[in-house]
Design brief:
Blueprint lengths: L50 H5 L21 H26 L13 H9 L6 E3 L7 H4 L4 H9 L31 H16 L5 E6 L6 H13 L3 E7 L2 E2 L2 E2 L20 E5 L3 H16 L5 E6 L29 H11 L5 H24 L24 H11 L1
Parallel strand pairs: 1-2, 2-3, 3-7, 6-7
Antiparallel strand pairs: 4-5
This protein binds thiamine diphosphate and magnesium ion.
């Protein structure tokens, strides 16, 4: 008998590749899903009942810009206008902040470009007191919860008025009054924290539900599975969202799961799971309202895959033309969330191009005024910054000796 181990003839394992690379044409399979596809679900449904919903795509806004199907939330004119305004404000805010980053007034920035509908529609479908455990891609929830734009800018700049005193990276907001939990740089930590908070709300008998989001890439981490497993066992009132925007920086989503999609991963955990069109404001609103009712009535968690496309760069430090075709997002079959809601509102006769231009101009003025005010409290290039002594404050009630020593050392 020989000691030699023969070499295998088959490929050892599979390394998925991105569907298209720079210089190639973006190809996305055309969508066959329509708003009529998926029936409504009872709020006490089982994971099994949601099979079709986990493998299909929940849509309300059709390619003809009309709203239809069992999930149509039939929102009134006022809600539609509010939704459109929040999304437009976020987009204009993001563009202004990117300019500030490029001119050295803040160090880093992350836009929500192409994903504006997600946090905005979903937070609008919740109660104001519900807990929001976001990633850096859901700052829009703060507009819905009435956060002052100047305060958001102060944080991103890290100037003297920053509510977190320069201790966080830009876009890592904390907004206590809005029940918007501090964003963590290590991705995914929010998932299990959110489940714990939802369990606490249920334990206290309060009608306060929790929503949390993480990205496709982050769902490859343990945090996703720890969180969803706890939710599966204890069934707290939570909405667990995986935002599949196709990329984790430069890594395509096909590196994050070997399964057919992200939604269906909730089924073996025994959690009703739905895949929803992430650029469809009405579908997002509707499914979140449904999941809130379900959670509030004591039927437990819902797992959502939000199917979208990251239209911009990952962050101000990223250049997507290095790893995907330019203007890839223009080929995305789900289109643009703002354009789709706008087209729907024009289609039903409550909006016009002129109204849209007026709203854009009004928000532009608002954003410029906010940026002027925020930079008057300091910017990255010129300061003033929060004093360095704030490194040591607001963590310990009683400052431990070693921290005290470091503080004195800094004072020298
Ligand atoms: C634990 C951890 N690993 C890696 C990083 C670096 N990092 C920051 S964002 C990111 C990509 C996350 O992609 P995804 O979850 O798809 O979210 P998206 O940016 O697409 O919204 C990575 C790898 C990090 N911040 N934390
Ligand atoms: Mg992603």
């Amino acid at each position: 008998m020989s000691d030699e181990i023969p070499l295998a003839t088959a490929e050892p394992f599979r390394v998925p590749t991105a569907p298209c690379r720079p210089g190639e044409e973006s190809v996305f399979a055309p969508w066959t899903w329509t708003p009529e596809d998926l029936p409504s679900l009872n709020i006490d449904c089982s994971a099994d009942d949601s099979q079709e919903h986990a493998y299909g795509l929940l849509r309300v806004l059709g390619d003809d810009d009309k709203a239809s199907g069992a999930w149509n939330p039939n929102l009134d004119e006022n809600m539609l206008k509010q939704g459109l305004e929040h999304m437009l404000r976020l987009r204009i805010f993001d563009e202004r902040m990117m300019k500030l980053q490029r001119t050295g007034k803040l160090s880093f920035y992350m836009r929500s470009y192409g994903e504006e509908a997600i946090a905005i529609a979903q937070t609008m479908a919740l109660e104001m007191h519900d807990w929001v455990f976001p990633s850096y891609r859901q700052p829009g929830a703060q507009f819905v919860r009435n956060r002052d734009m100047v305060s958001m800018m102060n944080h991103c700049i890290g100037n003297e008025e920053d509510n977190v005193k320069g201790r966080q990276m830009p876009v890592h907001y904390t907004y206590r009054d809005g029940h918007f939990i501090s964003i963590s740089s290590p991705v995914g930590t929010q998932f299990s924290q959110a489940v714990g908070v939802a369990m606490a709300s249920a334990y206290k008998g309060e009608d306060q539900i929790t929503i949390t989001w993480l990205g496709d890439g982050t769902s490859a981490q343990g945090d996703y599975h720890y969180g969803i497993n706890f939710a599966s066992v204890y069934k707290p009132p939570i909405i667990l969202c995986v935002v599949n925007n196709q990329f984790a920086i430069s890594t395509h989503a096909n590196m994050a799961t070997g399964g057919p999609n992200f939604a269906s991963r909730g089924l073996p955990y025994g959690i009703p799971s739905i895949r929803v069109d992430g650029n469809d404001f009405l579908a997002l609103y509707s499914v979140t309202k449904w999941a809130r009712e379900r959670a509030s009535a004591g039927h437990g968690p819902t797992h959502l895959e939000i199917y979208t496309y990251r239209a911009g760069a990952h962050s101000s430090s990223d250049d997507p033309s290095r790893y995907r075709p330019k203007n890839d997002h223009l080929a995305w079959p789900g289109g643009d969330p703002i354009e789709r809601l706008k087209a729907h509102m024009i289609e039903i006769g409550i909006w016009s191009e002129e109204d849209h231009t007026k709203m854009t101009e009004r928000i532009d003025i608002e954003v410029v005024a906010a940026y002027k005010e925020a930079t008057s409290y300091g910017d990255l290039a010129n300061g003033p910054y929060p004093p360095s002594s704030t490194i040591f404050t607001e963590v310990y009630e009683t400052v431990p000796w070693h921290v005290q020593e470091q503080r004195e050392e800094l004072g020298k």
